[in-house]
Amino acid sequence: MSTRKFQKASIEELIQWYVEGSISYEQSLKAADSRSANRAHDKVAAAYRELRNRGETSHLLPLLQSKDEIVRTHVAVHALEFAPEFGEPVLLWIEKRPGLNGLRAEYALKHWREGTLKFP
């Protein structure tokens, strides 16, 4: 997707693409398809960047209740930038779970606390 497409998208479309990208990212990793995983990650990052540019990142916070753990993980990590009081508790819970999301949460929290976490 082009940058222009993200810039013209509605908030609802950006949120939808964020969710779709997150789910596709997890599915691609499970299938060991790194190219698709990278494209999906880029979609999530681009949607987040556009929401941030518009000052609309708070629209992501309801996704902290998503049934999809990967969506909750992505939102919680991004929330560390704009609403850590919401993102951190979710990451602390996910960190205790087995699997890649737990590992992602652990490292995101570690880097955030060290001040080295970079946002797209």
From TrEMBL:
Species of provenance: Corallococcus coralloides
Domain of life here? Bacteria
The taxonomy runs: Bacteria, Pseudomonadati, Myxococcota, Myxococcia, Myxococcales
Q: Cross-referenced Gene3D superfamilies, in alphabetical order?
A: Phosphatidylinositol 3-kinase, accessory domain (PIK)
By what name is this protein known? Answer: Uncharacterized protein
Cross-referenced InterPro entries, in alphabetical order? ARM-type_fold, PI3K_accessory_sf
Q: Which SUPFAM superfamilies match?
A: ARM repeat
